[in-house]
Amino acid sequence: xxxxxxxxIGLVAGCFPETPKVPLTEDWPAKVGEYKKVAARWTxxxxxxxxxxxxxxxxxxxxxxxxxxxHAEDEAGARMLAGPARDALFTQAQAEVAGPYEVExxxxxxxxxxxxxxxxxxxxxxxxxxDPATGREIEPIEIIKDKRPPFVVRSEFPALGDFATAYIxxxxxxxxxxxxxxxELRLRMSGERxxxxxxxxxx
Length: 203
Known about the structure:
5-stranded antiparallel β-sheet
């Protein structure tokens, strides 16, 4: 029997603290936030359960301008960069903001054979962003494995579990996902077993 339920972040959250609202704009922040706090603000989680076991556990971090600035500041501090080297790191971070939208996906599946987001169209899962203006699905340009050592990935994304696989999903700028008029971002991951939907809401 197929499970066709779609679990929203609101249902999954249950009794957890209210989901933080975040600035859904392209603006480079005037003030750098503490990386761990910023990363937590931009991370959403959801769980899909089947009849007898957990089917999917997903954590997604949207790499917004706020996230990229905090990440650059954290990396500069860890590497003790100063002067031109530090400036170059921030210039790179700002350039990445202008590129494809990126989301870090931390995926755990009960059946490890189903943890296959890097298989493209052959994956058992479909991951899309939702166009805020039209509601249309935006397919990724690519989803690749984050092949860095787990301890490195976990230092940036603490939600990485022992059995999770980290992926980087890149989405085209065919429709603006950030901007002054954007009120909500939605990411959907679904398959024959059902799906989950995560959202980021503006203040």
